[in-house]
Specification:
Blueprint (H helix, E strand, L loop, with lengths): L1 E9 L5 H8 L12 E9 H4 L10 E10 L3 H8 L12 E8 L10 E6 L7 E10 L4 E10 L6 E8 L5 E10 L6 H36 L1
Antiparallel strand pairs: 1-2, 3-9, 4-5, 5-6, 6-7, 7-8, 8-9
Helix pairs in contact: 3-4
Length: 218
Amino acid sequence: MPSPLQLHRFNHATDTATANAIANGVNCPKQTQTRRFTLKVSVPDTIAQHHAHVIGPNQCCSVVAQPINAPVSTVWSVVRRFDNPQGYKHFVKSCHVVSGDGDGIRVGALREVRVVSGLPAVSSTERLEILDDERHVISFSVVGGDHRLRNYRSVTTLHGDGNGGTVVIESYVVDVPHGNTKEETCIFVDTIVRCNLQSLAQIAENMALNNANEETVF
């Protein structure tokens, strides 16, 4: 039976240190709301279990949700592109699939990601863990690179909202870097994830609008 996931979204400015760290050369879509609200999403148990991370003693875990006014199929066409994360992740400068692209992108594929300047990272080597086109689930883990987010694993799932739109849920677990607290780590990563999902929303909604206009013309 479906499981209700109660997700807290925060629509306020991040702390100054985090904002400065991510703002250099990267435009995060602006938020107009400043209140906290609760978003309840009912999803099948088989999907909800993907967001049930095992958390170690020096790790933190969080989840971010983003409503998008576009069909699941449109949003998924962007999210599933393991070979093109820069399609909506503004913090990614370039991506090169180094393993697993000979016969299409499959689970186990590796990509080398270069990030923009201004972040405490240079590159990240990431492995595709899940790519489920039927259930709209994608997951990757960080297995190497020059960065501070060790043992990072992310899971993203897409869900219809019942009105033709989509709710994207992204959760992650990551080691807390030496010298940082769990709260600081989650604030930093949540900010990046939230900016990525806001960018995804803008792109998918524009795609949906363009598709609707084309259908009207023809």
